[in-house]
Amino acid sequence: MDAAVHVLVSPWPRQGHINPMLHFATALVDAGVQVTFLHTEHNLRRLAQAPLPPRLRLLSIPDGLPDDHPRSILELLESMCTTSSAAYHALLLSADVPVTCVVADGPMPFAIDIAEELGIPALAFATHSACSYLALLSMPKLGELGESPFPADDPVCGVPGMEGFLRRRDLPRGLYCAEQGDGDPWMLKLAEVTARSSKACALILNTAASMEQPALAHIASRTSNVFAIGPLHARSRFAASPSLWREDDGCMAWLDSHEDRSVVYVSLGSRAVITHEQFTEFLSSLVATGYAFLWALRPDKVQMTSSALLREAVGAVQGSKARVVEWAPQRTCCGTGRWAAS
């Protein structure tokens, strides 16, 4: 291991951001680089029993919120920009092995700013696609043109290279707040942090040039250096990513009892919340397909409804053709040939 190189990898504290950045950190460790992976204290407590790649060091900083806080994106971002930024600064100054490079997730621009103030090279990391990043980078132009995200097929002209096919409904989810237009605070904040991340000395994207070369070329015209190194999960030797949710391995036996291409997998991610009406619509649609399905339903997925009642509702209409778990071992599940759709 090269003791002269010490990389601090800082993911945004969400499962979908932790996973690819952990694969990235593992690849660096395999190349002989000393790596420290930075969690929030809240997440590190939840991951206490999770397996980790050997030789990867973990540290944590506070996110400034109590454990029972729901951690909405804006509240978490604002808290981390104050509480976490001070702890991050102190960590860089006091590290027992000096940090020689920082790789920070795009929604954490304070990490890049602080590193640069201390003379430490800082790279930004985008966990989503190049097309999505380019759309976010183009938000000021979209605002000028009045092309706010909206569930409609109106064409979008404000994202370079996508004028012929991009629709308003295709713009990144999370910005759907048409009533507020370009004054939506989440839209403005996301555009701000994306623009700040593009000013780093380099940008790493979890994508492949063979898939997104046009979008990468447009991003490269606005940033210093762009590296497309994905898909990271396909290159990682680490079989599983530590999950913030307890995985139900029992679903694998149920899944293995089905024929190939006969099961639908449903998961709406680690943060999305739906109404009971939306849950009912999802369930009706799944039943109408005629396929068996595995549905990952977090305890807090459906507003004002317990997970036990949700499982009962699914069982009542679909019986043994459906399996509901709070969280599935997704990478293991997706490695089987049972899926008809996901």
UniProtKB/TrEMBL annotation:
InterPro entries in UniProt: UDP_glucos_trans
Transferase among keywords: yes
Molecular function terms from GO: UDP-glycosyltransferase activity
Keywords from the UniProt entry: Transferase
Keyword Ion transport part of the UniProt annotation: no
Family from the record: Belongs to the UDP-glycosyltransferase family.
Name this polypeptide is given: Uncharacterized protein
Protein's organism: Triticum aestivum (Wheat)
